[in-house]
Task: structure prediction
Amino acid sequence: MRQIKFRAFIEPLNSMIQVSKLTLATSGDVMVWINDTFYFDGHEAHLMQYTGLKDKNGKEIYEGDIVRVNIDELPPYTTVGQIVYSAPAFALKNKSGALESLELLIMNYAPEKVLEVIGNIYENPELLEENNV
Result:
């Protein structure tokens, strides 16, 4: 079973931080707690869930991460995309916006051999531009 955990990009701090606690406000908004301070998800905080996968460098892969996929077999396949949640599973959204099933991709290849986290959409959005492959 995969471990359920979250991190968040906190805009006022301009930082990616591991979330210590989540609560639900009476308004229905999710409150992201970092130590004794809370931020509202979707406003000051952007919540990202752990996929349960690690890349080839042992780094945990979260929703919002930008990953490079590199399969050296014939035919070779290389792409860069963003990890997104598309019910009922995580997917890879490529530069053109098309979704590729992450489950199907890793069914034949171990994620720790073909995936590499190269950034995230909040700190490195330029990695998704067409000329950055």
